[in-house]
């Protein structure tokens, strides 16, 4: 009886498939990450917000949406150049990420607009503690080529302890941010999703 063995080397194909999978994962990560700051981007934000609101509905886990931007950012770009503006954005992003828990998504929505999602049974106190810390952090100067520049932040917070939808929570956070700016910037305002009654930042 003759036995014939037949085989072929598939090492190259396996390596190519592994490289393709790694490339796919990297691309998937890139479409959810802001290239300048390394934070999550708007696409990731929409996904995380949807999941947070689902947990609020199913498990009664309160959620806060924090909107922030850099006060008078256009003046920074116009007066110091876009490279300086990018440095301020990156520094701002680092301070945001360093002021919250690793489980709280920090997002760059675009330009100088940022957001944070906080899920915590202690809301709204937990959200206000974050806002207080961020306002204090951003009063520290940023070194721009030997010039210390202070870039403060205005913050609007919406929080919900009962089921709500993304559009409502975003609108309330945006309104709270507008109130913080009207109050002179470098502060925060907080609004519950239920009643919309504002709170002051000090």
Could you characterize what this model shows?
It contains 6 helices and 8 strands, in the order ααβααββαβββαββ. The mean pLDDT is 88. Helix 3 crosses helix 4 (82-98). The chain has helices at 11-30, 42-59, 73-80, 82-98, 125-137, 166-182; strands spanning 63-70, 106-110, 113-119, 142-144, 147-149, 153-160, 188-192, 199-200. With 202 residues, the chain is α+β, with helices and mostly antiparallel strands. The protein has a 6-stranded mixed sheet with strand order 2-3-1-6-7-8, with helices on both faces. A two-stranded antiparallel sheet has the order 4-5. It is flat and about 95 Å long. The protein has a single domain (11-200), classed as 2-Layer Sandwich (Alpha-Beta Plaits), CATH 3.30.70. The longest helix is centred in the N-terminal third of the chain and has 20 residues, at 11-30.
């Amino acid at each position: 009886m003759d036995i014939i063995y037949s085989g072929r080397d598939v090492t190259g194909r396996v390596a190519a498939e592994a490289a393709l999978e790694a490339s796919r994962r990297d691309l998937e990560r890139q479409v959810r990450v802001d290239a300048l700051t390394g934070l999550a981007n708007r696409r990731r934000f929409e996904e995380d917000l949807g999941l947070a609101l689902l947990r609020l509905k199913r498990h009664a886990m309160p959620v806060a949406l924090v909107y922030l931007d850099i006060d008078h950012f256009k003046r920074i770009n116009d007066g110091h150049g876009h490279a300086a503006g990018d440095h301020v954005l990156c520094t701002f992003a680092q301070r945001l990420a360093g002021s919250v828990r690793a489980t709280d998504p920090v997002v760059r929505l675009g330009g100088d607009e940022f957001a944070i999602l906080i899920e915590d049974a202690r809301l709204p106190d937990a959200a206000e503690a974050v806002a207080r810390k961020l306002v204090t952090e951003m009063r520290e100067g940023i070194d721009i080529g030997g010039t210390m520049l202070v870039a403060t932040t205005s913050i609007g917070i919406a929080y919900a302890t009962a089921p709500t939808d993304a559009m409502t929570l975003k609108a309330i956070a945006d309104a709270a941010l507008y109130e913080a700016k009207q109050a002179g910037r470098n502060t925060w305002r907080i609004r519950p999703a239920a009643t919309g009654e504002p709170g002051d930042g000090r």
